[in-house]
Amino acid sequence: MSTPSAATASRWRALTHHHLFWPVAVLVALLLINVPFTPDFFAIKMTDGHLYGSLVSIVLFGSPLILVAVGMTLVIATGGIDLSVGAVVAITGALTCSYISDQADQNALAGVFLAMGIGLVAAVVCGLWNGFLVARMGIQPIIATLIIMVAGRGVAQLITDGQIITINSEPYKLIGGGYWLTLPFSIFVVAAVVAVTVALTRKTALGLLVESVGGNAEASRLVGIRSRRIKIMVYMFCALCAGIAGLMISSNTSAADGNNAGLWIELDAILAVVIGGTSLLGGRFSIGGTVIGALVIQTLTTTIYTIGVPTQTNLVFKAAVVIVVCLLQSPKFRAKVFGAKGRGKPAAPAQPAAPADAAPKMEVSR
Amino acid sequence: MSATTKTRTAPEGRTASQASAITRLLGDRRLPVLVTAALFLAMYLTGLGRYQNYGFAEPQVFLNLFIDNGYLLVAAVGATFVIMSGGIDLSVGSLIGFTTMFTAWLVERQGLPLIVVVPIALGVGAFGGFLMGYVIHNFEIQPFIVTLAGLFLFRGLCLVISKESISISDSTVSTLAQTRVPLGLGELSIGALVALAVLAAAFYVLHYTRFGRRVYAIGGNEQSALLMGLPLGGTKIAVYTVSGFCSALAGLLFMLYIQSGDPLHAVGMELDAIAAVVIGGTLLTGGSGYVIGTLFGVLVLGLIKSIIQFEGTLSSWWTKIATGVLLCAFILIQRAMTARKQT
User: Could you list the residue ranges that cross the membrane (chain B) (predicted)?
Assistant: First the structure.
């Protein structure tokens, strides 16, 4: 037992056991896969005062997903799930675009802000409804949010009258497709939302409260945490994030499509959260992990495009990723597969300590 | 707490007071099914009143509910098994889409006869369900996330087969699709008959066999089912296998109904199936419900569609909104019932 090697080993251990190690490793691996196919993958060019490059476009196209996934993270941290985000994306886009399209001057700033406000308020109301069903009525989250998932798209189509509403508004174009300070504007929006979320959950007790509600809602209530109110807030926040994503998506395409806007984004978002190492059982979460998870998904999509694999296999790859990530997160799978190979430890005792990403539950600042 | 025993075992609470009669009714497990059946009847009668002059009263309109929704009924029956066991299967719609695509590809592009293709398709579906069940049970991953992977996988496989839809011109398929079985007042398609047969089989299996009782027991309380010595793993895996099989069969019926394979067929149908099961009164937490309720759930959903068709002016998105509202109402009814039972 020489000390240097032990020290290296322990440092390696600390690194690999960091909760962000695997998501980051996957992201880096995915990015590197691109290099042999597109040698200038990491190159970033400046054209017309805008930065262009694969990395920029990954963040640009991934922005709505990051937003939805960040909101979803908090919901999942309380032990819930929100299936309605895709429908909320559609409703927000539909309301905002139909309001803008009704205006005489679509470029008027006041009108655009009002339209965005209307869209976001509608989103928050959806969140309030979800939270009410989950926290007050005690309905399982997957079912409670199923209602808006089913009805919401109908409502969005009702708002747009079944049409795809196209608009032509310069200020509105900015939020999802515009540039600011040479970077896509949506990056700033995402950065702001992520920063606020991290600040609220990690610099205040809010994150701890969310985790404790997710750990055991009843116990939290008994120690004096208003677990119902926290749950409702979390669903409202999630819907707000989805609403902002809805603005971005409709702004990027300058159109509102009640049927297809945000289709399957809830599934991608849940996937991002899971890849990021947040347990679906609730009780702990990692915003950073989620952001990386969302980037992994977007990079996967981009990689599939650049490598020249037929795009239709996209979903198969995603399925493979879900399965692999879930299997790796399952203590039982690890015990069975890796434990059986005999690392010198019996499988059973190794199992409880196993999750590499299982940071102590009560750790507040990360 | 004492309310628990009272509502569960009705006989002792035979005090003639009205309050207890209401509690008893609310505690009756059959109530949701009865409510759905009554709702169906009310909707049907409303339709009769409103569209009498448009031929709504013809028995064939009623039978068309089975012809147009046979595939949904089969898928919903599969979902009933899963939900009854306390799980959930999100891969239903994708598996249906995949089956239409797979069979269309085998029949049209590979020239295999339908009689060979059908067992293969059913086998693939059942095997898909088995795999998902295996992973769910053996690695203790939530059913929701495993079947989500299944959703992605099967939809992806659809697209791998072909991005474009494949229309089926096989003569066996078109003969089967066009065959109508006269039934006194009207006629039914082969698909509708198969769906009814599946329903009957599911009814028998769930209510009269050992397997059915195990499904209920596991859905009611997994821990106590395990302590009772029930084969937890086997039953769970079997439930997902049944669901996979039913989805594949639903896919075949859908293929017959629409006579083509398309990578976007049946997107989101898992939600229709889940909605039908819930509206049919099966408890989403598992352990309670009737497969007949699922039939009424499907009929109610189908009736919404045909009423909207008869209305003419209403647009298709009202179907989604109406489904959502109904779903909400029934979830709240369920909640009221379970709250009484459990507190």
Answer: 31-49, 61-84, 90-107, 114-135, 141-162, 183-206, 237-259, 271-304, 316-333
Q: Does A340 touch chain B (CB under 8 A)?
A: no
> What span, in angstroms and rounded, lies between the C-alpha atoms of B61 and B73?
17
Q: Which of A151, A267, A327 sits opposite B148 (nearest CB)?
A: A267
- Which chain B residues are Cβ-neighbours of A138 within 8 angstroms? 335, 339
Helix (H) or strand (E) run with residue A133 in it: none
Look-up: residue for tokens 């797979």?
Answer: B102
Chain B positions touching A319 (Cβ under 8 A) are 149-153, 156
Q: What is the pLDDT of residue B313?
A: 66
Q: Can you tell me the distance from the alpha carbon of B13 to that of B27, in angstroms, rounded to the nearest whole number? A: 12
Burial letters B136-168, b for 16+ CB under 10 A, else e:
bbebebbbbbbbbbbbbbbbbbbbbbbeebbeb
Tokens of residue B188, six digits:
């039914």
Tell me the β-bridge partners of A46.
Answer: A51
Indicate the length of chain A as a whole number.
366
How does residue B314 score in pLDDT terms, banded at 50, 70 and 90? low
* 3 state SS of B330: helix
Q: Check if A332 contacts B (Cβ < 8 Å).
A: yes
Does B45 contact chain A (CB < 8 Å)?
A: no
Q: Are A247 and A175 in contact (CB under 8 A)?
A: yes
Residue B169: what residue type? S
- Most B-contacting residue of A72, A273, A323 (CB-CB within 10 A), to test interface: A323
Residue A84: CB partners within 8 Å, gap ≥ 6?
A: A126, A130, A145, A146, A147, A148, A149, A152, A239, A242, A266
Single-letter residue type at A68: V
| Cβ atoms of A111 and A100 closer than 8 Å | yes
Residue A134 CB coordination number (10 Å): 27
A307 contact B CB<8A: no
Structure tokens at A180: 């600011």
Pairing outcome for strands A164-166 and A255-257? antiparallel
Checking if the pLDDT of B24 tops 80, the result is: no
Q: What are the angstrom distances between the C-alpha of A166 and each of A23, A233, A245, A250, A265?
A: 38, 33, 18, 9, 21
Gap between the Cα atoms of B35 and B291, Å rounded: 15
Interchain proximity B152–A322, CB inside 8 Å: yes
- ipTM here: 0.77
Q: In sequence order, what E strands does chain A have? A: 45-47, 50-52, 164-166, 179-180, 183-184, 255-257
User: What CA–CA distance (Å, rounded) separates A103 from A51?
Assistant: 33
Are the Cβ atoms of A319 and B156 closer than 8 angstroms? Answer: yes
With CB atoms and an 8 Å threshold, state whether B331 touches A143.
yes
Which 103-142 residues of chain B touch chain A by CB within 8 A?
Answer: 135, 138-142
Is the pTM higher than 0.90?
A: no
The SS3 of residue B113 is coil
CB neighbourhood size of A353 (10 A): 11
Pick from A69-83, A156-170, B205-219: least confident: A156-170
Task: Round the CA-based radius of gyration of chain A to a whole number and report it.
Answer: 22
Mean pLDDT score, A288-293 = 92
The torsion angle over the Cα atoms of residues B198, B202, B203 and B206, rounded to 10 degrees, is 180
Instruction: Give the model confidence (pLDDT) of B25-82 as tens digits.
Output: 666 777 788 888 888 898 888 888 888 777 788 888 888 899 999 999 999 999 999 9
Per-residue 3-state assignment (H helix, E strand, C coil) for A2-17: CHHHHHHHHHHHHHHC
